[in-house]
Amino acid sequence: MEDKVRHNLSHWPIFYALVGLVGIVLTWRGIWHLADAVGLSSWLSVLIGVTILLSTGLLVAIAIGDEVIINAFRGRRKITEMRLEETLTLVERVDDIKGLLDKIEKKLGSIKKEEEKIEKEIEQKTG
Asked: How many secondary structure helices (H) and strands (E) does the chain include?
């Protein structure tokens, strides 16, 4: 159902944005009133909110973007959390890939020369 609704709303992006905004505002309004009904003070609300955001990694994600969430979902660690050996392994992988690309480029060059040689032979035989 969600995919169908998103697909239909995607044809009208401004309306889609407004629907999303209404959903967000109503959700936060409900949370706000619930906190008031329970009697949470402002400072306790801030403390609980920051604790939740810090413990889930969302405080940083909000500040720097969704990259953190995507990498966490994929099981990747931040480059700052990697050990030196792992970082060097990444560098070695990049060097290996560059080496492979160089080999491919040389092969393609030799194939191109061979192709030109064959074309000349065909021209000589037909010409």
From this structure: 6, 0
Q: CA 114 to CA 108: how far, in whole Å?
A: 10
Q: What's 80's DSSP letter?
A: G
Q: What is the pTM of this model?
A: 0.42
Task: pLDDT tens for the chain, 127 residues: list them.
Answer: 777 888 888 888 888 889 888 998 998 899 999 999 999 898 999 899 888 888 877 776 666 566 655 666 666 655 556 666 666 677 778 888 898 999 999 999 999 999 999 999 888 888 6
How far apart are the C-alpha atoms of 117 and 111, rounded to whole Å?
Answer: 10
Amino acid identity at 75: G
CA-to-CA separations, 87 to 11, 78, 82, 94, 101, in angstroms, rounded: 44, 11, 6, 11, 21
Question: Phi and psi dihedrals of 38, rounded to 5?
Answer: -80, -20
